[in-house]
Amino acid sequence: MTVQRAADLLAGARRGLALTGAGVSAESGIPTFRGEGGLWTQYDPVKVSSIETFLADPAAYWRVSKDRGRIALAARPNPGHEALAALEARGCLVALVTQNTDGLHQDAGSRRVLELHGSGRFVECLTCGRREPRSEVQARLETEMPPRCTGCGGAVLKPTVVLFGEPMPPDATQEAFQLASEADVMLVVGTSLVVYPAADVPLLALRSGARMIVVNAEPTPFDRFAEVVVHGRSGEVLPEIVSLIGG
Ligand code: NAD
Q: What is the rounded average pLDDT of the residues 67-91?
């Protein structure tokens, strides 16, 4: 049985690494970009979420971000997030690399989380660099569009997420690639694997000899490289893997 094979691989991992994407948070009510119910069906996220679009019209960006932020701030971890934290606690994963910006892995108890695309929990001023919690700015969005820095006198605020066209955080990125090059088991969950360089993480692990497990609702371009592929919901498949490992 494939889930049993995934459990066996992870139970024997000495340097297990996970890469997660938006699919892991779908069962927490946060829409994905691609796949069933994905935001891609409503608008082009690359256009809406690029740094060029943001700088050209920050208010237009924030109007879309307002609703997404409200949903993300209210979301709670689901059994998939909790299972990933349990895998780390049992020593099956040394760390978790995520493309998600929602902070739910940390809420679920994952300790070593490398956020390749930044965090949606904060905003920063593009002029003075002052950071404040997104939750505080969220309340102001009803009357202030776009929101502005209260520290330096009115420059526009931007969420501390990596928009298309922006560089990824160097420290998290470097650490993720280092861990990928050392991994013996690579667990890939809830990602369409079409956004680079994030998708290079499992490719590097594979080149370095890791065995790969893919858990995703739909087929991915990397399924053919994986030793184990489970097509299903991460909130159901991952807890099953953890219960098979036990302990
Ligand atoms: P994606 O939207 O491109 O792909 C999501 C994948 O998850 C799809 O293949 C889909 O079939 C699968 N999926 C959907 N529900 C699932 C479930 N319950 N269990 C398992 N798989 C499921 O996501 P991506 O590859 O992470 O790339 C999207 C980009 O958008 C990322 O860069 C990310 O930063 C950003 N994003 C983040 C969030 C978030 O923080 N929660 C949400 C949307 C987009």
A: 97
In angstroms, what CA-CA distances link 202 with 14, 78, 187?
16, 24, 8
Whole-number Å distance between alpha carbons of 60 and 53: 8
Residues 200 and 125 in one domain: no
As for how many domains the chain has, the answer is 2
Q: Is the same domain home to 102 and 215?
A: yes
Ligand 1 neighbours by CB, cut-off 6 Å: 21-23, 25-27, 30, 32-35, 38, 99-102, 117, 190-192, 195, 216-218, 233-235
Q: Side chain identity at 13, as an amino acid letter?
A: A
> Are residues 173 and 98 located together in one domain of the fold?
yes
CA of 151 to the centre of ligand 1 (A): 35
Q: Residue 51 sits in a domain of what CATH number?
A: 3.30.1600.10
The pLDDT tens digits for 141-184 are 999 999 999 889 789 999 999 999 999 999 999 999 999 999 99
**Residue 35: its pLDDT value, please?**
65
**Which pLDDT tens digit goes with each residue over 205-243?**
999 999 999 999 999 999 999 999 999 999 999 999 999
- CATH number, residue 113: 3.40.50.1220
Same-domain pairing of 23 and 89: yes
CA pair distance 118, 202, nearest whole angstrom: 19
Ligand 1 centroid to residue 196 C-alpha, Å? 14
Which atom number of ligand 1 is nearest to the Cα of residue 120?
40
Cβ–Cβ < 8 Å for 212, 230: no
Q: Which domain holds residue 152?
A: 32-74+119-161
